Amino acid sequence: MERLLPSDPSLIGGHRLAGRLGAGGMGVVYLARSPLGAWCALKVIRAEYADDQDFRARFRREADLASRLTGRWTVPVVAADAEARSPWLATAYVPGPSLAETVALHGPWPEAQLRGLGTALAEALEGVHTAGLVHRDVKPANVLLAADGPRLIDFGIARAVGATALTADGSVVGSPGYLSPEQARGHTVGPPSDVFSLGCVLAHTATGRPPFGTGGAAAVLYRTVHQEPDLDGVPENLDRTIRRCLAKEPERRPGTRELRDIFGEFASEGWLPEGLPALVATRAARVLDLPTPEPTAVTGPPAALSPVAPPSPTRRRLLVAGAALGVTAAAGAGAWWEWGRADASANTGSVRRSRHVVTLLGSPDDPFFTDHRRGALLAVEQHNKDARRTLDLVLRTADDRGTATGSAAAAARLAADPDVSVVIATGPNATVLAALTPCTKARLTLLVTRADAETFNNVNTTTALVLRPTLLLGPTAVLRYLNRVVKPARTVIVHDLATEAESLATVRVTTVHGKLDGETVVEEVAADEGFTGAARRIAARPRDAVLFGGVSPERAAACARALRNAGHQGARGATEHVLSAPFRAAGEDWWISTGYTDANADPRTKAFAAAFRARHGHPPGPWAAEAYDAVRFAAHGLAAVGDDGRSALRSELLRSPWQGITRRVSFDADSQFFLTGDGSGQFLFRVTGGAARFVARSDDIGKKT
After folding, report:
1. Residue 309 and residue 325: Cα distance in Å, rounded?
2. Could you tell me the CA-to-CA distances from 593 to 280, 492, 599, 673, 698 in Å, in that order?
C-alpha cells in the first residue's frame, strides 16, 4: 500500500481513505474505512474519464455485475455510486496476498491444498455462471488468499454469457496464458471458458509456471490454441482432471459442479500450504494496525459539497508534473529548437489564446526524423495562421539519442516541464517503449506515429495513444491483397525465429485468427539457419503465396534471394520493417504493408504534398504526412480541453473518431485499442526497380489493383 497523495480526497461517499492500493490509467483503488468502520477497497474512476459517457457506462455495468454476486468465495460489493462526479465502487477488503505472489515466493502447492483451492474456485465460478456471467479473467493475480479461503476478484471485464472476447480487429480481452482457445480466437465465450482458465490457474499453482509458457502475448496465444499444456509436475491424481479443464474444445471440459465433486469438500483448516498462514496473518495484521485516516489537503470546494473534488486545472497540472519527478523543470529543458513562438505570442485584439507546446521526441540521426519534423512544422504553421483558432501551438524537438536510455531521460525532462502539453514519439519500438513510464507517471499524453510494438495495445495502462495499426493486426494491406487480388489456394507463412516475437504476430493473425481466406501452413526457420532448405520446400508448389513474418531486413533479403533461386513464382509479402537497401535490391515484386503513405503518390494527400514542397523545397518523405496528422489530432483535442491540456487531453482524444489526411483515428471505448474499421490505416507498396512504390491504401485494395 502507498501513502495518499496531497491531491487525493480524504472522504468519498462517507468512506475515509487510508492509502492507495494501486493506480492505473483509468483510476485509483484506495484502502478505505466505511462509515461503519469496516475496511474496504474503493475503486474510483478519474474525473476526466468519468466525463466520457462510454467510460461511465462501463463502470456502471461493472458495479451492476459485481453486485449480483453473493457467494462466499467472491468479494461482495458494500457500496457504490455510478452517478457521482467520479464514480466509485467499494468492495470488502481482502488483506491477504494474491495467489500469483505466493506461488512466486513459496513455490508450488501440494495436492491436498490444490484440491481445496480447486473446490473453492469452482464454487465461486458456479455462482458467477448462475448469475448469468462469464468472468473472462480468471488468473492467479485475481485470486486473493484469506485465512478462511480464497477470494475471486476483479469483474472489470466480466460479461453476460454469450458475449464475444474480441474488442477490435484481432484484439483479445483477458490475460494471455490463462484465457481459453475460443477466447484467444475472439469467439463467443461461455462458462467453459472460465473452466479452462481455472485449469490454467491450478496447473500454475501445482508446477510454479504457466502451462503455456511465458514470453510475448503472440507466442503464448499461439501455444494456447495449437499446443498441449506443459503439466510436468502436476500431482498424478489431478493430472487427468486438469487436462480435461484444458481441453481445446469447450464441450469436453467438466462443469463446475463436477469439479467440486472431484476435488471434494473445502476444509478451512489447513487449506493453505506450510508457511502461507503466517504470511496471510501478517498482511491482515498490517491493516489492523493502521491508524485512523487523516484528512488530506485538496484544493477546491469543501468535501461536503464535492467529496471527490480534484485540484483546480492549473494546480492539477503542476501537481502531476511535480509529483512525478519531484522537480519543476525550466521551460524548454531537453529541447534543441522551438518553432512557432513568434506567431503564438501574438495574441492581439480581443482574442486571448492559450499556448500549448507540442514536442517531437526522436533522434536527429534517425533517417525518418527530418520528415517527421517538417511535416509537424507545416501543421503548426498552418494552424497558427488560422484566424478562427482558439489556441496557439509551439513546436519543440527533444533528442532521445536513438537509444532507450536516452529516450527515457528525454521523456522524464519533458514530463517535468509543465509547459509541454503533448509529446509525439517519432522513433522505433526500442526507443518509444522507454518513454512510456515517465510520460505515464506525469499523465503526459504520448502520441505514437511510427512504432508498432504489441506493447502499445495495452494503452489503458499508459498515457500513450498509438496512431497506427500495430504488429498485433499483422500486415493488413498485404493480407487484403492476397485475399482480394491474388486469392492463392495456399499461403506459406515463413516464421523467422531470429525475430520470433514479431514473427509470431503474423503467424497468429494468419493461423489463430484466420485472416487469410485460403489454406495456411507455417515454415519455421531457425535463427542460425539459412533459407535455402525452406525455399526449396516452398518452391515445390511454385504458385503458393509466401508471407515473411520476420522484421529483420537482412534475413528478409536472404529469404527473397533463396526463393528466387529456388524458382518460386507466387506472390510474396512482408512488413515495412524489411525495407532496407539490401532487401529492395533482392526483393523485386514483393508486396509490402506499411503504416505510412507516400504523400506524393497517394491521391488523398495531394494538397499536403504541394504545401510541403512549397514550404520545404522538396517532396515529403515517409512519415511526413503522419506527423502532420499527429499535430492536427493533438490540436483538435487541445482546443476542446482548454487550459487543462495535459491531464485531460488523452481522455478527450479517446472520445470520438477523427479524420486525418492519412487515416481515420478511432479507439475502442473499452480497450482503447486503435480501430482499423474497414481496414484503413495501412498502405500497400510494391518493390520494383530497387525502390518501394506506393500502390494503394488498404481499404482501396481490390478496387483499383
Report:
1. 24
2. 53, 17, 16, 20, 9
Give the end of a domain, one of 93, 121, 153.
93
Task: Find cell 499483422 and name the residue.
Answer: 474
Residues identified as active-site: 137
Q: Say if CB 205 and CB 109 are below 8 A apart.
A: yes
Question: DSSP readout, 7-32?
Answer: TS-SEETTEEEEEEEEE-SSEEEEEE
Quote the cell numbers at residue 596.
505510412
Q: Which residues are annotated as a binding site?
A: 43
Is 658 among the domain residues?
yes
145 CB contacts (<8 Å, ≥6 apart)? 94, 96, 97, 98, 99, 102, 151, 272, 276, 280
455 confidence band (pLDDT: 50, 70, 90): confident
* Residues 337, 267 within the same domain: no
What distances in angstroms separate CA 426 from CA 201, 379, 652, 654, one per listed residue?
40, 15, 22, 20
DSSP 604: G
Residue 166 CA: distances (Å) to CA of 182, 183, 193, 330: 10, 8, 14, 45
- Apex 594 CA angle, 700 and 25, nearest 5: 105
Neighbouring residues of 583: CB distance < 8 A, sequence distance ≥ 6 = 553, 556, 557, 560, 590, 687
- Residue 291 has φ and ψ, to the nearest 5°, of -75, 170
C-alpha cell at 33: 474505512
What are the grid coordinates assigned to 402, written together? 536513438
User: Is 476 in the same domain as 465?
Assistant: no
- pLDDT tens-digit series, residues 216-261: 666 788 889 889 999 999 999 999 999 999 999 999 999 999 999 9
How far apart are alpha carbons 231 and 219 in whole angstroms?
Answer: 18
pLDDT at residue 171, as a whole number: 44
| Per-position DSSP letters for 122-184, written without gaps between them | HHHHHHHHHTTEE-----GGGEEEETTEEEE---TT-EETT-BSEEETTEE-S-TTTS-HHHH
- Give the residue numbers spanning the domain of 68: 1-93
Strands 445-448 and 159-160: unpaired
**Per residue in 553-589, pLDDT tens?**
999 999 999 999 999 999 999 999 999 999 999 999 9
Domain with 5 in it: what CATH number?
A: 3.30.200.20
Q: Is the pTM of this model over 0.70?
A: no
Residue 22, in any domain of the structure: yes
Numbered residues of the known binding site for ATP? 43
Secondary element (H or E) of residue 41: strand 39-45
From the list 244, 267, 650, the residue with the least C-alpha distance to 436 is: 650
Exposure string over 618-636, b if 16+ CB within 10 A, otherwise e:
eebbbbbbbbbbbbbbbbe
Measured distance CA(639)–CA(648) in Å, rounded = 11
Question: Which of 494, 363, 508, 507 is closest to 426 using CA atoms?
Answer: 363
